[in-house]
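Hey,
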Amino acid sequence: MGALIAALAAEAGYKVKIRDIEQKFLDRGKETLNSVYDRRISQKRMTEADKKKIFDRMTFLVDVKEAVKDADIIIEAVPEIMDLKKSVLKEATALCPDDCVFATNTSSLSIAEIATAARKPGNVVGTHYFNPPSRMTLLEIIKHPKTSKSAIDIAEKVAIAMGRAVVHVTDVPGFIANRIFCNMANEADWALAQGEAKDAFQIDSAIKYKLGLPMGMLELQDTLGGGSIDTQFHVMEYFGETMGKSYGPAPILEKCFKARNYGRKTGKGYYDWSRGKTNEIPMNAGADFNPIRVLATAVNEGVKLIEMKATTMEEIDIAVLLGLNYPRGLFRLADSVGIDNIVNELDRLYKKYKKEPRYKVCTTLTKMVKQGKLGRKTGEGFYSYGPGEYEFIKLDINKDTRVGKLILNRPNRANAFNADMMAEINKALGELEQDDNVRCVVITGAGANFCGGADFAAFATGRVEPAIDFSEAPHDVFTRIETYPKPVIAAINGPAMGGGLELALACDIRIMSKSAMVRLPELTLGLLPGAGATQRLGRLIGWARAREIILLSDPIYADKALEWGLVNLIAEPKEFMKLVDEKAIIFAEGAPLAQKLAKSLIYYGAQADQRSALYLEAALSGNIAMTEDLNEGIVAMYGRRKPKFTGK
């Protein structure tokens, strides 16, 4: 990992000296970096010249004195053994400049204890890089009681230059990410040991599919690094020593550790991995287990960190998103579940299990319930959900062009929508509809994707009603888009999968980047397109082609999408947003009342017989004849000037 951290510094433009105790270890580091960069070159993500520039900034050496004599910052990445880290720190700080910052990379060891070996403890700061650092951008910067502000500032400046997303935390056990994750994983063990779930499959299924976490807690311990039960045991032992006995290893974890069942690498852990078993987690296995059993204690631990002023709410959520790859921040999850439900679950556990200290509800949570701050359902919880306040949506309104962009802002999940995100889309549409500064709405995606469809949480309940409700929500929202009083453009900047394509189908026109593709993959998963494609697609491009797209589930790229009439315009990626903006401005300069009525005629007329629709057209044409906009349009035409429509 040390070589990869060094490479980040070199890529940021720093001169880097990489020191190890033997040349063979340095050679191994070079091989690792060569492999990484050669792979990027083969993928056309960098050139040989780029690689050479990076290596020119790096020097590999064994001599520690030569390595640190003129260092501004030393990043130590030796194995997590306290005596070894203290030995390295003592040697390096005796030889480096007085103002050199020493950053020790650790996921759990006490920074204060490590710093006792330093010549100047105030220059020592903790830095927890996540592996692999080329993909995991989170960096926890840990301050011990004697760490100077200048050391923190320098460590942060370097980290940001290296592309890190920085969170700050004091020197508490587990810091942020590991404190949340390890306690949450331990609680999953307790739930199984206490008989609240019948097996590991039930717990992991609920965590994976209902909460939407990447893996089940017990599954992850069995498979991370081939099995990490031994590591988890040592961490929980440390937590038990530093945080209280209640936080010690859970019963099954301890049993597995003592039996040397560390997970897949030993053939057994929480699951039996013998004879090539894969232990796939069924989606419906967790139908009868509520993952709040595990989530509630994690939320409680997060609040404790805030109450002890170790870090902030925002930094905890960043750590959970980027360090643990959770689909949402911890406190966003709590707001969605309901703070009252979190407190009720903690109270239940506290009463049932002999007042175990880890179940005691934090003062902050109790206070929030008394104040009625219960989360999304009351408009305020850890976060506020008033007008203009979103978790998954970003609004960008240009008052000069009168174009409002509704940006699907969940890039870490390909902008896939869940129930809360769908509600936010509807809320944003309402705000844009009422905003007189907006005449045209553009819907697009943040990052590389337009929208990756929907998550599967509603299908993991084992009940029909939630699945129907989950499908009905986009029906309501997408129909609102079709009948929206203002023109709506789908700017398909990247892949539009499943519900993402169905969202685009509801818009008035679709503009697609040539780097994007659209697809309805539902049938490959045993699902149906559930947000309108079975009805809108055939009406748009004909039923033969609609059947092909739905039944074959093949991806459709820009040229074919244009040929089939699935999209109206396509553009090269560099010209894409320019084209979108041009068309949006044309819409925004149009006659609002005429646009609104034209959209209504197209939508409602298509659902009536032709003669009835023609009568509706005549009636609305009579209404439009009385408007100021019509007068302005005709006068402007004769005056050979651009009309200035007011919507009156």
